[in-house]
Amino acid sequence: MAQFMARPSLIPKSLRFSPSIYSRTAPSYSLRAVTRFMSSSTSQPSYEYILVSRPEPSVVLVTLNRPKALNALCSPLFKELNQALEEADQDDSVGAMVLTGSEKAFAAGADIKEMKDKQYADVYKNKFLEDWGRIAHLRKPLIAAVSGYALGGGCELALMCDIILASPSAKFGQPEINLGVIPGGGGSQRLIHAIGKSRTMELVLTGRMFSAKEASDWGMVSRVVGEGEGEVVKEAINMAKEISGKSQLAVQAGKEVVNAAYEMTLAEGLRFERRIFHGLFATNDQKEGMAAFAEKRKANFTHS
Ligand code: CAA
Predict the structure, then answer these.
(1) Which of 64, 94, 231, 232 has the most beta carbons within 10 angstroms of its beta carbon?
(2) Do 209 and 232 share a structural domain?
(3) Are 271 and 214 members of one domain?
(4) Among residues of the chain, what percentage have pLDDT more than 90?
(5) Is the residue at 299 inside a domain?
(6) Whole-number pLDDT of residue 156
(7) Domain count, the chain
(8) What pLDDT band is residue 210 in, cutting at 50, 70 and 90?
(9) What's the pLDDT score for residue 35?
(10) Ligand 1 neighbours (beta carbon < 6 A)
(11) Domain that residue 225 falls in
(12) Among this protein's residues, is 156 annotated catalytic?
């Protein structure tokens, strides 16, 4: 199935059949026409496990699209995901990206059927799952819009994103212990930073699922959005659009300094933040942003 054979049920109702979600130049509102247009487009790579669209000119939406397996993260899916996100990251017209799954599952984890017969020599020699970390090296913000199951690698994937929005239906968890293993995509480490040691230990050792409300109360997700199919995706796209209206340089700098707090002591982090802050005074966007404030007008950032 090609990338743009969009399954309407995966896309918020209000965004369905809008030409902008598929392409800024799609000629028709009908699914058949959109599909025909996108299938015939040679400029876009063809994906089997994900859908890539532009709900706004400056926002790329990547939708995991392996519904029968609840978006289990098989290796080819992750390869496509890395490729699509890295392309969006390199595209100057893109300000932020959104990653989502279906209403039933953001992603139910790494593909257990793919993993079950693997041997130690194989996974070690071939650095199994190491390419998952590429998402954490994107320069631009990536917002996770999570509905349904986000388990194991699915929870880890959400944690790799810069911001997580959850629908009330979201169910998170690190159930690897039930499979005789432990998280391998960063869950144990990133969860500690997000929710603390005791909760992380409980979740990793029991495999218990936790709700969107718990994730929000613990500070793992920034908020739980309203009920309704596609609401969380709409909210994430609005947030991505808002971020895209800022200076890309300042946004990149903001992401870099916030992430640095994971790695540095407070003193190192404060020094790093100050240096990056100072550096922004060498940009046109700092001049424009402050001049616009003084002149009581909207800033027109040039990302330079
Ligand atoms: N890998 C491969 N296939 C999966 C999968 C996974 N992680 N999760 C679900 N599927 C498949 C099922 O095998 C099933 O396929 P078939 O129809 O071919 O049998 C299909 O998706 C639908 O799943 P269920 O019938 O199980 O759906 P359900 O609604 O009854 O249950 C669920 C949903 C609770 C999420 C259940 O599917 C489940 O427990 N999935 C596994 C969750 C899990 O253990 N994730 C961790 C994986 S390990 C990992 O991620 C390691 C790491 O750290 C990187």
Answers:
(1) 232
(2) yes
(3) no
(4) 83
(5) no
(6) 98
(7) 2
(8) very high
(9) 35
(10) 69-70, 72, 108-113, 129, 149, 151-153, 156, 175-176, 179, 183-185, 187
(11) 8-244
(12) yes
